[in-house]
């Protein structure tokens, strides 16, 4: 396994990152890495020459065929590729995998490990597919210097942030969460449902244990259930967290002090996921990404030491800054997670 | 106030029911009353001469103008009305109000009380707008002989049934419920959202206290939150109920023994609200009404004495048989709630 | 090939119909056949033991495994089957195929022809997969006594009816139709889109030629384009038909005289596909099927001899009565299409 | 009426633009004006202190109360306003009205005319509410120096562009257009439909005449019908244009030469409105605005001299660059429409 990032004769040597799987997550990670000072994107891969591949080239990324046997498709479509993944993987300090669920694990076993290159796989994979599960607030140190890490899902990332805020002011005894999940990402026109609610009939759902894979001390304390509903914009979480005590003001303060999570007010017109996305569009965010977790201030309430609150999760983007921090941890580029978070946020233009 | 239903010289005297507001709820109550042996529909009212008014006439109901000043609209449209509500209200033993939210209360004050006629108002009204809140299982006796009763909402009715099953085998310590609400009824093409999730930012939401208005002993024990999602078919509830203990088998049994609630299996293809409605269509139900509450058997689980389960609620129809029972209670037609439930179910063709 | 239906010694011998593929179309054809006097359902097939299979048994149909190797699944699920399709196909006078797109053609080649049994395949198949394309109004005579017939799609059936009405009063010079298609049937929770419009980028779309496969004299005269939109209830057609001349009154009259198509008024509240389905629910139709084609009266207009009108198509049900008529034609049970239409309509309770 | 823009002693005097009604259209026009060299935004108005008002302040716009009596609401909410519209209107060379349908007309009569200030009202108003109807390609000259102009709707603007391309190579004999309209803008969570198609039962719809208000020579030649479908992203148009002759290549070329319209390929994955918006997000467009009209190349076809094609319209943004050009025309800042188009496009970063 290659050694991570090193500084040489005063110059800063930037970490060389390859993005394998330039889809919803992959393309965002590429753009987030590209705007950091200490990293660079040495290439992105695509399985087919569609408009996303074209766009990658227009943005100036070197394009590689993710599946060598399909390289000819790019030529036939008149898209210039710099080779296949086999031609570039050895140059990478770390690969960020952005392939679909289950393919990430296969890539890790068949490609990244074989080529002795560090790799991040995404939240579609299982906790034990990698050495550990990453969240910038909770497991940065645990993942420091590691070779194969799973960046947890959008839902888990969102819960890790709100639980961090809560944990900073009180003790969590038991957390119950109901996840109302968006059906598909907004670019998808194939999957449904069009007009139905689909329950995850396994209750508790896998989301609780997934949070616990990041926050070991919450083992057995997070219980979740989930439904899928016909919308594309964001997930929604209803949290009910039994604690040893806290006030609404405490919680609002704690959220204000926690990175990448903030409160919003329905009374200001931010009364649905549609309004939140409109805000993000107005803010001029690239692809309207709302990387931070918005919590409705009106929804925060404490009864009998139990905290209630509702938050939304922009599934396409909340994990993106975490990927950048994870790179820094795995390549031992920065020891302090808060410093990495600040660097990432500043480069990406996040609010906090 | 008129005295309720009485039998005379051997003949059964049927209760004379007027339906004021023949919309989603009103038209279903009309059909449910019409098929009972001990009641009859003496008339239904409409505010305008639309296709629902036509359909009422075709079904053989006598049609009255709900708003006397609008009577001329019916004539102009060529629809034969038998008069206005003022012409018929004195003949009614009881009026079932089916007017929209807030209008029910007004009708009660300005119309039913003034005409000294018993009345049921629906779940859009508030608990203290009437003498008590009705559910066939929980408050039949309390409403017996009363003059003005509120028939609680579809969501509250659904929760009352599952909590009845649970209460029959264990003690409820605390119940947490997250309601994922359908946006509009399927006949509505005006309201949204089209592609958003809308949180009720008051947490806990009003649904918990509403259940407690029916089940007084649960005072302070039911905590709920709610979101609205872009679907028309059914609501969904995720229940988390702390108890003194129960097994999954106990719960399945208890549900089997409780009227108007049953278990369904996702493994049989009943894996979404869309599939449940398809089942109801296949069963030949009028308007595909699924008056019973379906609970996903796979979702029932007990951890640390806390019961988890997911249920769906067909918002248009679960309260309909309750309206029939409520009539019997208010008009003192049957003392035993279980007997009324059985009569109603049999006449309507319910499963249980 | 077996000879069709014959009457023997005074008794009426009913045609023995097997339904292969008891899905959206298959189950409806079964129920429509079952209520005819001159036919009976000798069995229905399912590929898996889901709730639809259970429902078929509850309705009293004999259930067979469509795929012999999967017969054990039914036993394991505790569902009683009467055997596999191989055990029953020889007893059938005719098989109505209800299998998904492309499977119907395979079944015809591999199963029905091999067993020498007459068969109807549905609109998912191509025109030249069968001997001819059926519509009760246009091609009954052509299909009389034939062995393998394609019952055209819901959209084609809808257009055949409105074009029949128009053709009865004027000459069609050119018809342009834009089809706004429902995304999925209401029982489907898997396919999308959730929030997108998908164009058929082949313009003209295949729908025009498909109509021409039924109405040969319109060869080259029907031009269509199509989009898919996120709704489940009905398709919508915008028709623009150049003719040699007609008035709006002529058209309204012609529609009134044509079977299985009628006018509705938006002014009566029937102003969307949602309202039309509500009407059908109110009418007490099984599964709310609206087998007739509704045309908005307000939308009918004639400018420069070009007829404009908008109609909706209940995709799940408009082809069902046609399947019944097609059986009568293929088995030579009734020579006169109008008589068959009347028999079918009466048995099914259609308006006209 | 004030005289329009003039240059003084070498310096360029920028046109002072006030945006009255900072909603979907208003905020986009503000940003588009702000990035032009020859204009500036002197203020924007809001009726209430919501998040959009906050965002306007954060962007550096001076905020004014649109309704003087509501000024106190802003103070109460802690939002700094620079006064009410009455304080700023006299400083404006031109007001761009962005108020909802019908309010624009009222504002023109009661506010702009009274204050003797030039004004653009938007497409929600009627053709004869203003002096003329604007499109950069068709009526720039007609609107030159005028005082009150209506900027036509998103649909009309889209059609004006494709018809311009077609008109540049052949003669339009008759155009038929079916509009499949998005239900609401993506920020809206109040209006529906959730699961229905709503026809405009007036056929032809008002869209044809609206195009003719811009392109006088097409008087009587444009016939349209329209439906509303449950999606938020874009409208879709199916065009059928009878001409004196053209080839597909001609049309593709003509589109390539026409400003603000381009072809896209479904074969590259751009096969739905969802994919088009994804492309726009990837392009880094502010609020993902796709100001240009995309036409599906695969859908372009010519049969018997009739052109078929399908195009999408990003309703929130296609009219924005037209507003900028309209300002230049009305204030006589640039005589040549093509030069204005180029200036606008360059400043806004449009593709063409
Ligand atoms: N989209 C989300 O909401 C979201 C949020 C958090 C985490 N995730 C996780 O991120 C991962 C990627 O999801 P996504 O939504 O970006 O998927 P996506 O479908 O948008 O993108 C996947 C990309 O991988 C490419 N690909 C397919 N096979 C490949 C292979 N063998 N090698 C390399 N690339 C291949 C595809 O062409 C596509 O470009 C999944 O694990 C998912 O669970 C997704
Ligand atoms: N639809 C549901 O899901 C549902 C479920 C349970 C309870 N409820 C409750 O039932 C009540 C009725 O709701 P709905 O969904 O049937 O509404 P609806 O809009 O379908 O029907 C209301 C009917 O009342 C008529 N109406 C209006 N003003 C009237 C007046 N002044 N007098 C008499 N009639 C009048 C309307 O014309 C309409 O026919 C509400 O309280 C609602 O909260 C509705
Ligand atoms: N649903 C509509 O809107 C509609 C309208 C008109 C025509 N059609 C056509 O009707 C046909 C059936 O469509 P559907 O919507 O009823 O489909 P469906 O998916 O609802 O039902 C198909 C049924 O066939 C069964 N099946 C699968 N493989 C089979 C096999 N090898 N042999 C026998 N059965 C098999 C499936 O289990 C299922 O029960 C298609 O050709 C379709 O294009 C559908
Ligand atoms: N959104 C579109 O798709 C679209 C496209 C093209 C044209 N248009 C037209 O643009 C106009 C504006 O539409 P929109 O979609 O931007 O609406 P919108 O509802 O998004 O915004 C309207 C804004 O006007 C404000 N407003 C209300 N009353 C006002 C008053 N009296 N004075 C000043 N401001 C007032 C509202 O607060 C809101 O901020 C309409 O004529 C509409 O038809 C809209």
TrEMBL record, chains A, B, C, D:
Catalysed transformations (reactions): D-glyceraldehyde 3-phosphate + phosphate + NAD(+) = (2R)-3-phospho-glyceroyl phosphate + NADH + H(+); D-glyceraldehyde 3-phosphate + phosphate + NADP(+) = (2R)-3-phospho-glyceroyl phosphate + NADPH + H(+)
GO biological process: glycolytic process; lysine biosynthetic process via diaminopimelate
Chief location bin: cytoplasm
Pfam families associated with the record: DapB_N, Gp_dh_C
Ranges for domain Glyceraldehyde 3-phosphate dehydrogenase NAD(P) binding: 15-154
Oxidoreductase in keyword set: yes
UniProt binding sites for D-glyceraldehyde 3-phosphate: 153-155, 207-208
The protein's annotated pathway: Carbohydrate degradation; glycolysis; pyruvate from D-glyceraldehyde 3-phosphate: step 1/5
GO cellular component: cytoplasm
SUPFAM superfamilies associated with the record: Glyceraldehyde-3-phosphate dehydrogenase-like, C-terminal domain, NAD(P)-binding Rossmann-fold domains
Keywords carried by this UniProt record: Cytoplasm, Glycolysis, NAD, NADP, Oxidoreductase
Catalytic residues (positions): 154
Location in or out of the cell: Cytoplasm
Binding site for NAD(+): 24-25, 124, 182, 315
EC numbers on record: 1.2.1.59
An annotated Gene Ontology molecular function: NADP binding
Subunit field text: Homotetramer.
Family per similarity comment: Belongs to the glyceraldehyde-3-phosphate dehydrogenase family.
Protein's name in the database: Glyceraldehyde-3-phosphate dehydrogenase
Organism: Methanococcus voltae (strain ATCC BAA-1334 / A3)
């Amino acid at each position: 396994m290659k050694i991570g990032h090193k500084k040489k004769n005063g110059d800063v040597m930037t970490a060389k990152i390859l993005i394998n799987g330039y889809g919803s997550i992959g393309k965002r990670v590429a753009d987030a890495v590209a705007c950091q000072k200490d990293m660079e994107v040495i290439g992105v891969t695509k399985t087919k020459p569609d408009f996303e591949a074209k766009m990658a080239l227009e943005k100036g990324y070197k394009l590689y065929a993710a599946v060598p046997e399909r390289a000819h498709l790019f030529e036939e479509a008149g898209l210039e590729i710099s080779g296949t993944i086999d031609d570039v993987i050895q140059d990478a300090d770390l690969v960020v995998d952005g392939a679909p669920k289950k393919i990430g694990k296969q890539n890790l076993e068949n490609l990244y490990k074989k080529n002795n290159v560090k790799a991040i796989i995404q939240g579609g994979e299982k906790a034990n597919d990698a050495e550990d599960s990453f969240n910038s607030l909770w497991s940065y140190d645990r993942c420091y210097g590691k070779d194969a890490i799973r960046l947890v899902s959008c839902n888990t990332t969102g819960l890790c942030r709100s639980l961090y805020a809560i944990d900073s002011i009180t003790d969590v005894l038991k957390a119950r969460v109901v996840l109302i999940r968006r059906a598909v990402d907004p670019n998808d026109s194939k999957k449904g449902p069009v007009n139905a609610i689909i329950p995850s009939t396994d209750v508790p759902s896998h989301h609780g244990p997934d949070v616990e894979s990041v926050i070991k001390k919450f083992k057995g304390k997070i219980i979740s259930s989930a439904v899928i509903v016909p919308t594309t914009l964001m997930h929604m979480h209803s949290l009910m967290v039994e604690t040893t005590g806290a006030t609404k003001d405490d919680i609002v303060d704690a959220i204000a002090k926690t990175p990448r999570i903030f409160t919003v007010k329905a009374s200001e017109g931010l009364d649905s996921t549609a309004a939140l996305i409109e805000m993000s569009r107005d803010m001029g965010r690239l692809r309207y990404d709302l990387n931070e977790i918005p919590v409705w201030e009106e929804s925060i309430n404490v009864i009998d030491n139990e905290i209630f609150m509702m938050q939304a999760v922009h599934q396409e983007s909340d994990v993106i800054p975490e990927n950048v921090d994870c790179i820094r941890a795995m390549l031992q580029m920065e020891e302090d997670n808060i410093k990495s978070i600040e660097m990432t946020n500043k480069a990406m233009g996040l609010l906090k």
